[in-house]
Amino acid sequence: MKVRMLAVALWLLGLAIAGVIVARTPVATDMSAFLPRAPTPAQQMLVDQLREGVVSRLMLVAIDAAPDRLAGISRAMAADLRADARFAVVANGDVAALARERDLVWRNRYLLSPAVTQDRFGVAALHAALLSDLAMLGTDMAPLIKQLLPADPTGESLVLLQDFQGGAHPDSRDGVWVSHDGGRALMMVSTRAAGFDIDGQEQALAAVRAAFAAVPEHAGARLVVSGPPVFAVASRARIKGDAERLSMIATALVAAVLLLAYRSPHVLLLSLLPVASGALAGIAAVGGTFGFVHGITLGFGVTLIGEAVDYAIYLFTQTPPGGSPRAALRQIWPTLRLGMLTSVCGFSAMLFSHFVGFAQLGLFTIVGLVTALAVTRFVLPALLPMAFATRSSTAFARPVQALIRARRGLRWGVLAACVIAGVALLRHGAPYWQDELTSMSPIATADLAQDRALRAELGAPDARVLLVAAADDPQAALAASEHLAQRLRPLVAQGVLDGFDAPSRYLPSLATQTERREALPEPAVLRQNLAIALNGVNLRRDVFAPFLADVEAARAGRLIEKADLEGTGIGLQVESLLVRHGAGWAALLPLRNLRDAPALAAAVAMPGVVLLDLKRESDNLLASYRGEAVTLSAVGSLVILLLLSAHLRHPRRIAAVVLPLAAAVLCTAALLAGGQARLSIFNLFGLLLVVAVGSNYCLFFERPHSDPPRMVASLTLADICTVIGFGILGFSQVPVLHDIGTTVAIGACLSLVFGAVLSTRA
């Protein structure tokens, strides 16, 4: 009695400790958990941008309303959001809201303009500029030229305007951005919260929706918000929502089956204790080891419902009237222990994964299964009465017993099924594996298409191909950006690419700014050059006093630094293109429509410069996941085979366990490949779970038992619960849950059937 009470006390204490750890463990949904422990620079850049880059903070907003209401709603929303500290930049094209940005560019035009050189203010250059201004006074641009001419006869502001707007930008109407068809107002909102801060992004998204709802004219209008922050919030909600909803449904269905089998709420409750204990211990182990638990790992916890409940079913169903749970445990314990060890061996290989996410999945499964079996072995007997026995459940055994009786004839059918499955896999025309990282995303295709459409309208950052120049500090990165820009301009003229962007376009390095400032002539020299340049030009000499004053102010003024641009659209561009990279910095130069990558690579060959194709790199990352998953699965399978060989020893006994598992895996893979376009790495994990679940069935079939009908009934009941628990996941829209659930539901069913047919014992 003391031993039993001690087991219960230790179990309760363990649950309490695990509960505290789980309560303090944050849930992550970003891709950093699936980054290699030693990533390549390109992989690190990819995930850094997904986690913290400005693109990960950018919300794209569209407002559908009557054309005469768009400007009012857009201005009211933007004003509300600009007053909110959760947003760094709110851009909707409102000219009045860009006063600070225009003033910054105007005051610093001589430091920002790439046209400023020592020859820019010579007599010949000034004379040519004045003649050009005079000619433009006869064009549609006359009002703008008249306004700029006294202070900017060399046209630096026009150079910057053309340079800054060299890429795509939204249309404007009534002073705000609108779509090309004029049917919706557009806005870009950058959050202060980083991409990995899902709570902060969720609060910012709620603030955007609240600002729209607070506009009196919003009735009848429709708000559309897209972008990485929206996807991150939606992904977390969908993963958690599906995991919780489907786990509740699966638990209810499994509970109904167990209640039907045992006709006892008490036994039902005890059956679910190993499941709950295993899931809690698994999450606590991951949280305590890694400091966080990924949403995919959390979703993986639902799978324990379909497997961990098997242990209690074996115990309860195989306890006959007049017997005792302890006696039943003594008989089935070697089989349960070996089945658990095969599962642990299969998943232990994942602990050595280079990807933290895979290591989490392996640790979670191992701890969960060990805990579930330990609760079944030491806690459940202590909670059962001495004379406990369940109702006879031979009705569950009848279908499988029929298979066993007919197994000699059915073996040819299993062999034929395996041959057909093998041929189907060998002759499978399409690629076996999904090769795009987006296949792991729970975001709907329609939402992704809507995001692409909004980006095209807004000209928002969405670079797929870019040059990355790594440096020790921001100034070195800006200098590298300037050198690259000089090499890229001829390539644009040659048609190698359509264009590019660069952080040095918006924020030149301090060295370049100093060079431009030193190119500005002294007041007396500039006044003399201007007087000579005005000869033969029909412009008054006294109107250029502002020009002389602004050049002198620029000569004496301070240089521009990154902090001066904060809160402006220019600052947003710089933040997106000048980023922290490890211990240093990197300049990102997005390329538009690159046509000749070899020619580009030859032209920009510089130390520390990498041509990065984000899509290709993300797909390569997925290929790395898949390659390592295949390797780890093979190693795990080999360890399982060695373990079974060491315990069973005789080739016939080994074959009786291994052959049904191999047949189930082969046929499951063939059914999945034929029923869906391509397999994912989660299908692969599902196949590993098939081995873990099916090994228990095959081991029970292989070993002699004092009450075969009850043994077969326990396997059938366990299989029904497993198929329910995993099959429910097949209805999830989250790829990890859907793929694992579908795979294990099919594989578990086939494992039971093949184990019964290929068993060597009557």
The largest sheet is: 5 strands, antiparallel
Distance between the termini: 39 Å
Tally of strands: 13
Mean of residue pLDDT values: 81
How many DSSP helices?
30
What is the CATH H-level superfamily of the domain at 2-30 and 231-427 and 617-758? Multidrug efflux transporter AcrB transmembrane domain
Strand content: 5-15%
- Apparent shape: elongated
Q: Structural class given helices, strands, pairing?
A: alpha+beta
CATH fold call of the domain at 2-30 and 231-427 and 617-758: Multidrug efflux transporter AcrB transmembrane fold
Descriptive tags:
13 strands; four-stranded antiparallel sheet; elongated; alpha+beta; Multidrug efflux transporter AcrB transmembrane fold
Describe the protein:
The chain has 762 residues and is an alpha+beta fold. It has a domain at 2-30 and 231-427 and 617-758: Multidrug efflux transporter AcrB transmembrane domain (Multidrug efflux transporter AcrB transmembrane fold). It has 30 helices and 13 strands. The strands form 4 sheets. Strands 9, 10, 11, 12 and 13 form a 5-stranded antiparallel β-sheet that branches. It has a 4-stranded antiparallel β-sheet with strand order 3-6-2-7, with helices on both faces. Strands 1-8 form a two-stranded parallel ribbon. The longest helix is centred in the N-terminal third of the chain and has 35 residues, at 228-262. The two termini are 39 Å apart. The mean pLDDT is 81.
SSE blueprint:
Layout: H1 2-23, E1 27-28, H2 41-51, E2 58-64, H3 67-82, E3 87-91, H4 99-107, H5 109-112, H6 123-136, H7 142-148, H8 156-164, E4 171-173, E5 176-178, E6 184-191, H9 198-214, E7 222-226, H10 228-262, H11 265-290, E8 293-294, H12 295-300, H13 303-317, H14 325-348, H15 356-383, H16 394-405, H17 407-426, H18 445-458, E9 465-471, H19 474-494, E10 499-500, H20 503-506, H21 510-519, H22 523-533, H23 545-556, H24 569-577, E11 578-581, E12 584-592, H25 597-603, E13 609-613, H26 614-648, H27 651-675, H28 681-702, H29 708-727, H30 735-758
Parallel strand pairs: 1-8
Antiparallel strand pairs: 2-6, 2-7, 3-6, 4-5, 9-12, 9-13, 10-12, 11-12
